User: Fold this.
Amino acid sequence: MKNWHWMLLALVAVASLIAQFVGEAGHGPWAHVPAFWALFGFLGCALIILVSKAIGKYFLQRREDYYDEL
Amino acid sequence: MSFELPPFVFLILGGLILPLVPRKLRAATFLLFPALALAAVWTHPDGAVVSAEFFKYELTLMRVDALSRVFGIVLALITLIGGIYSYHLEDTGQRVAALLYSGGALGVAFAGDFLTLLVCWEVMAVASTYLIWARRSQEALRAGMRYLLVHLFGGGVLLAGIGVYFHTTGSLVLRAFEPGESLAGWLVLLAVAINTAIPPLHSWLADSYPKATVTGAVFLSALTTKSAVYVLARLFPGWEILIYLGVIMALYGVVYAVLANDIRQILAYHIISQVGYMVTGVGIGTALAINGTAAHAFSHILYKALLFMGAGVVLYVTGKSKLSDLGGLGRYMPLAVGLYMVGAFSISGFPFFNGFISKSIIIASAGEEGRYGVELLLILASVGTFLHTGLKLPYWTWFGRDSGLKPMRKIPPNMLLAMGLLAFLCTLFGVYPQLLYQWLPNPMEYQPYTTAHLVETTQLLIFTFVAFWLMRLKVQGDARIALDTDWVYRRLAPLLRWLLVEKVNQVFDGCQRATDRVTVWGVQLASNPLEVWQRHQLPTRPFDPDKDRFPVGNSIVFTLVLVITIALFALFGG
Assistant:
């Protein structure tokens, strides 16, 4: 990721934040919360990674030859 | 009267004719059959019916309406493009299996009665198994056998459901069940849930698809689950339980995709996740939701096949498919990466790609019903979709750390052509959603390109990317497996077999051996009691007839006494 990539992303993100209040509103109780979807995307992604990794570590993950032992 | 043939006829006949065609022409001839089926699906008018007499039953081999047609078009189309992708292949068995498999799927999509449905269902199960076995590795053989057993079990449950249905209603005609209607309904739902890969009945999918052949996985990814979604939409619209199962599916696939290491297993878990949206749509059951299910199945088949093709290219040229072995391959296959990314953008719902215009219909239909929790959870699943299919998989396969792996062979151009066609279609339907919406079963007023929807998607995608970038090391390949519900029949079943079969067999074996010993001893005792007596009394030296046998005179005296006794008895007795 080069710097100009990040700048472009930031530009689009800012545009979407502004557009949220210019165009017609969406539906749902969250329609008027600023940057709702930005937060949702960021926290959602972090949550998915952390929770899944924890479930994997403590419950689900085994060595690759687990099923070959029997 | 116009003459119409059920579309599956072309494919099943094709499967029978193909081995008779000269070897060199088989790859090209293959394409003919799905093309004919596609033409048939496209041109058959609503309400067209083909029926046949079978013993005393009236079977409806084909019954056309909009819902059948939209599934039929995409099932035939993907068989055609899958044929292009496998054009280089020299394996007639796989081609025949693909044709029969696709014939079964199209048969399901147009079946008008339960018996036709059942037969097509079983044809699919058997034909698709070959696409796993054709990999010819020990792993694939075993996974294929597990796959087949699960699907035959599903077929058995379906048959049971149909039996109950016929017994109680006296009819075989396919019609929607009222929510929670009857035992027959629940049995059929259970059978269809297996093919739809609804947890906990889903593990056959993530177990077998990564082990299938490169080209076989493309057909597998498209046909089984989506034909099952069609049956759900046909028979179970508005069953509320499906809403919850669908949401669970959507998130279940996401969690396991974090843990999966094989790139085709990541994609397989995302089939489960994506089908979750469709199952939710069926559960909501409104006109908009059913449209969403059909549209999303259509989009999904196109981009998921494209993604499997991209992963297949990696496997084909490197022989590896585990993320922990891959990395830095992008410079050897820039075109394949680009085309894969079109599929990744589509499944992630980027604007101007076909996921954007279909996934959102289901999400909107949940919002329309005031089910905000369902809506948010589905959007969370779609964050996960972008995370895995759009970021984790391509980043750690083609970029990221350089594994030093080099391609062993060239990518056949037909593979890239097939990917190009699908990438074109994913974009075409994304830019012109009306092309797809006109085929949907219900009238459609939904408009995907609104400011609110664009804002939502842009923010979600950008910030998912930011979170991924910060945590990307956490999601790199991990050379371990994650246990899923196939544990029950892969680990628990061997234990049960040990306890209930092997242990019981040991008891029987022990009894058998004991009886044998008693019999042998009895026979010895009867044939030569002296030998047994001697062995018991003087075990220090072996039996010697000269020393141990009674003198012969004893026998003569004994016989003489016996004869005299009998003679005396005969003369004077009684």
